[in-house]
Specification:
About 80% of the residues lie in helices and about 0% in strands. It is mostly helical and about 290 residues long. It has a single domain, classed as ABC transporter involved in vitamin B12 uptake, BtuC, CATH 1.10.3470.
Length: about 290
């Protein structure tokens, strides 16, 4: 059994394990809303839109996670503002701000002579390089995200499944959508050091999509998704350690493996199309 404990005798692996569990839980829980509300493209846009904040923080010599957080929040608020005014469609607003933020980030990063080596972990993750400061920031942000989800669970549930009723009851669905966007932005920032910009959406979507195949209740979906997220992160960490491969990529591929197994071997929920019921709306309930 030494192979189970050996990796975590090292301090950097212990920090990586804590970070993996934090990211696995937060991404999986918020990912349920991403899947149910079809926000995957939005998540991808926000993930790439943090580059300007990272570049500015890097150039200023401050923590890149804080820079990414500021950039993600600003872009999320910008998307929300464009969408609520109704002048242009939301997907158009996302495309414009995504492209502009990405271009600005590339421009700023290109001014750093060593950007190719120093900022590579932003794109592909650096789970084994997580420091104490990163853990404190990620842990604090994770608690804030999960607490908000718990406190506003009923409102998010209503806005997700019946926005028209929410509007009739005076719940102002646009406000709660903005809050969800902000939570999504924060969750993406939490995940940057683990899987990087290029893979963060996979960690948001894949465990939640797997849970979607296995249950029809939102609370249960969140619990199953969180378990899958943690399992994917921990197993991916073992794979990364013993095979000496990218930790972020290993985590995502393990999560994808869980999804494929669920898709193939969950006939009650996952393969409803085999029974000819693919057109039935089977979105989870509370």
């Amino acid at each position: 059994m030494d192979w189970l404990t050996e990796p975590f005798t090292l301090p950097f692996m212990q920090r990586a394990l804590i970070a993996a569990v934090i990211v696995g839980v937060v991404c999986a829980v918020l990912g349920c809303y991403v899947v149910l509300r079809s926000m995957a493209f939005l998540g991808d846009a926000l993930a790439h839109a943090v580059l300007p904040g990272i570049a500015v923080a890097y150039l200023a010599g401050t923590n890149t996670l804080l820079g990414a957080l500021v950039a993600a929040v600003l872009v999320a608020l910008g998307i929300s503002a464009f969408a609520q005014h109704g002048t242009i469609r939301e997907d158009t607003a996302i495309g414009i701000l995504f492209a502009a933020a990405l271009a600005l980030g590339v421009l700023l990063i290109s001014t750093v002579r060593t950007y190719a080596t120093d900022l590579t972990h932003i794109l592909f993750g650096d789970l084994l390089g997580v420091g104490r400061e990163d853990l404190f920031i990620s842990g604090g942000l994770a608690v804030m995200v999960l607490a908000t989800v718990v406190l506003l669970f009923k409102e998010f549930l209503l806005v997700t499944f019946d926005p028209l009723l929410a509007h009739t009851l005076g719940k102002r669905p646009g406000v709660y959508r903005t809050v969800l966007l902000l939570l999504l932005a924060v969750t993406i920032v939490i995940s940057l050091r683990t899987v990087g910009v290029g893979l963060v959406v996979a960690l948001l979507v894949t465990p939640a999509a797997t849970a979607y195949l296995l249950t029809r209740r939102l609370v249960r979906m969140m619990l199953v998704s969180a378990l899958l997220g943690v399992a994917s992160s921990v197993i991916g960490l073992y794979v990364s350690y013993y095979l000496d491969v990218s930790s972020g990529a290993a985590v995502v591929l393990v999560a994808t493996g869980f999804f494929l197994v669920a898709y193939i071997f969950a006939p009650r929920y996952g393969l409803v199309w085999r029974a000819g019921s693919a057109r039935v709306n089977r979105r989870p309930t509370a």
